[in-house]
Amino acid sequence: MHVSVDRAKCDNHGQCTFSAPTVFRLNDQGILEYDDDVDDSLRADVEEAADVCPMQAIIVTD
Amino acid sequence: MSTEIEVPYLDISDPSFAMHSEEVREARERHWYAKTNYGFAILRHQYVSTLLKDTRLSQGSGKWPAHNGVHSGLFYDWWTKCLLVLEGEDHHRIRRLLNPAFSFRHIEAYVPRFEQLATELVDAIIDRGEFEFVHDFAEPYATRVLCILTGIPESEYPTIARISSSIGLALGITIKEDLPEIDAALAELYGYAEALIVDRQANPRDDLVTRLVEANRDGDSLSDDELRNALCLLIFGGMDTTRNQLGLGVQTMMQNPDQWELLAAHPELARNAVEEVMRMNPTTTWVTREAVVDFDYEDLHAPAGSTVHFLTQVSGTDPAAYPNPGMDITAERVPHYGFGGGMHHCLGHFVARMDMTIALRTLSQRMTNIRVNGPDEWMPDSGNTGPVHLPLAFDKR
């Protein structure tokens, strides 16, 4: 599964880090970092992260 | 050799203090923050955007009851355990369990019901040519939206509105003397919330309360107390804010009649109109944080325990972030912070955005030449603002 974040939309609120903490994290400067190639076992968590993102900035593709 | 900066000072609790004032604009031009009688106020958009998410600052409302002499009782117990004031792992766990029920795709399903409600309320006044915006539209709309979301019968909305207003007294400086009324209202709200939880546990259906009851991550779920606390926060947090923001929305649109006509001609711009209204005229005029540790950023030194307010209207009209800060519902803008930000970003923002979009779209389709029609009354600009009383006249479109 491929994950991408639209950086023009992302505002680094970090809600995705609650849903999928092993995929999304905020660095020391508070900027979002994420893994773009994610194992399918984490699909539910990643899709939840995309769902709850306040800016709707997360795109999940197969 | 460093130059001594003269940091502006704002008396933000003065009843005559106005966010939309030359004094505040001048302070923002001089420096990125001001000192206030409540600690510090961040004025510029770039700094609000960055520092609102800084984890050295915690949500600042947790100690509000204690700061005002309230140390026990039903409200005290609820407030100190509710999501709004929780921090760290306690916050993240509950937020994670609550978040999915408030996601865009679940809230979108309520659109037809919200549209039906807005139309019903407008139908009731459209031939009169005048109405009192808070009583005839904003309050029934905001409260019945919450009834629709929770499954409380819409006919009970006056009770829910009264309860919510009574609990709202807890945010005022007279919290201690109002405490008996606040605690009694919260007890009544607990009754509603507990009945909803028991019912959905026995009779699950496709709705928000069932999704909260069934929320489960890695075997963890919300206890009955946590569910009750969350439902009470949803009703309390969702009603007053939406009612007030709708009043500010109509005020902003009346000041920009060309934008109202543009919206009427292009109803697809309603969502953007909500963003513009919240950027320029937010009900939550400041978002409160408290320094967990001694907090240093550039020339700002806030000792641990200091209050830091983020002024949303001031940052939302900062010309450095919004070169043409006047209302333009066709503009693409950087985000405003009317819903706060970071880990405490408003949980119900998709609901608020959706229901206010529908309200502004419906009103603009049916009414034109809206004007103030008698004495209006407004809350002060400090904290949460909006109209108490807003008599309007209009022409039927």
In short:
The complex is a heterodimer of chains A (62) and B (397). With 62 residues, chain A is an alpha+beta fold. Chain A has two helices and four strands, in the order βαββαβ.
* Series of H and E elements of chain A: EHEEHE
Report the CATH superfamily of chain B: Cytochrome P450
Q: What structural category characterises the helix and strand content of chain A?
A: alpha+beta
- Tally of distinct domains of chain B: 1
Descriptive labels:
heterodimer; A: alpha+beta; Alpha-Beta Plaits; two-stranded antiparallel ribbon; two-stranded antiparallel sheet; 2 helices; 4 strands; 23% helix; B: alpha+beta; Cytochrome p450; six-stranded mixed sheet; three-stranded antiparallel sheet; 50% helix
Write the layout of secondary structure elements.
The complex is a heterodimer of chains A (62) and B (397).
Chain A: E1 2-5, H1 16-19, E2 24-26, E3 32-34, H2 43-52, E4 58-61
Antiparallel strand pairs in A: 1-4, 2-3
Chain B: E1 9-10, H1 22-30, E2 33-36, E3 39-42, H2 45-51, E4 57-59, H3 64-67, H4 74-79, H5 88-98, H6 104-108, H7 111-125, E5 130-132, H8 133-150, H9 157-168, H10 175-202, H11 208-214, E6 216-217, E7 220-221, H12 224-255, H13 257-265, H14 270-280, E8 286-291, E9 295-297, E10 300-302, E11 307-311, H15 312-316, H16 349-366, E12 367-372, E13 377-378, E14 387-389, E15 391-396
Parallel strand pairs in B: 1-2, 3-11
Antiparallel strand pairs in B: 2-3, 4-8, 5-15, 6-7, 8-11, 9-10, 12-15, 13-14
Helix pairs in contact in B: 7-8, 7-16, 8-9, 8-12, 9-10, 9-12, 10-11, 10-12, 12-14, 12-16, 13-16, 14-16
